[in-house]
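Q: what sequence does this backbone want?
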């Protein structure tokens, strides 16, 4: 435990406290901006959006989990320490749901309580998930399996499949999965392929055990 705390202190000395605060504030502001944007797009009729956004189905894409999981993984993996990953991810989701539901309540004029409870619950557990995700960037076998687990979750949130069929929820979801694999890539191509292979196998198993769509 002492070594763990010393490693955190050593890592955090690499950047100033002021820079850490600025970085975290920027992440929180990003969450606020994306939450407001997501709700704004949700209230605009599809035929009023630019053709490209209609084609990419951006509104529904932002309403599903894959992109938010991907962003949380990116924030976690690129945070300086596991503690900073916890703080950054929690504030990102806090900013996102606050702006989303404040916009929903005071501008759109309604508050979807049941949907909000899902996101609030997810935000509450996000620090634990961020703490775990941060260790996925390591090079140990445990890190490999953590990366594979994250890959599995992204796979099931990006694709629908079964006996005789396979498809992506959207082009953006497929790209999200590929970007997730790139962020989680290992030191070598072979180990990255192994990570993806284990992740897909875990995804199929998870799909059998918990066949829920997100």
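A:
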């Amino acid at each position: 435990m002492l070594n763990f705390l010393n490693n955190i202190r050593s890592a955090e000395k690499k950047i100033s406290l002021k820079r850490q605060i600025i970085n975290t504030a920027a992440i929180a502001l990003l969450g606020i901006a994306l939450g407001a944007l997501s709700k704004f797009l949700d209230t605009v009729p599809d035929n009023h959006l630019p053709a490209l956004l209609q084609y990419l189905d951006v509104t529904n894409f932002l309403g599903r989990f894959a992109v938010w999981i991907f962003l949380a993984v990116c924030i976690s993996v690129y945070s300086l320490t596991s503690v900073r990953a916890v703080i950054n991810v929690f504030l990102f989701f806090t900013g996102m749901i606050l702006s989303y539901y404040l916009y929903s309540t005071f501008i759109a004029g309604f508050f979807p309580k049941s949907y909000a409870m899902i996101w609030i619950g997810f935000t509450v557990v996000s620090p634990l998930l961020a703490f775990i995700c941060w260790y996925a960037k390591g090079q140990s076998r445990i890190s490999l399996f953590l990366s594979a687990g994250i890959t599995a979750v992204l796979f099931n949130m990006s694709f629908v499949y079964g006996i005789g069929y396979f498809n992506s929820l959207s082009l953006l979801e497929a790209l999200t999965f590929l970007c997730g694999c790139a962020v989680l890539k290992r030191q070598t191509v072979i180990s990255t392929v192994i990570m993806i292979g284990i992740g897909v196998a875990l995804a199929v198993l998870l799909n059998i055990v918990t066949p829920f769509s997100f």
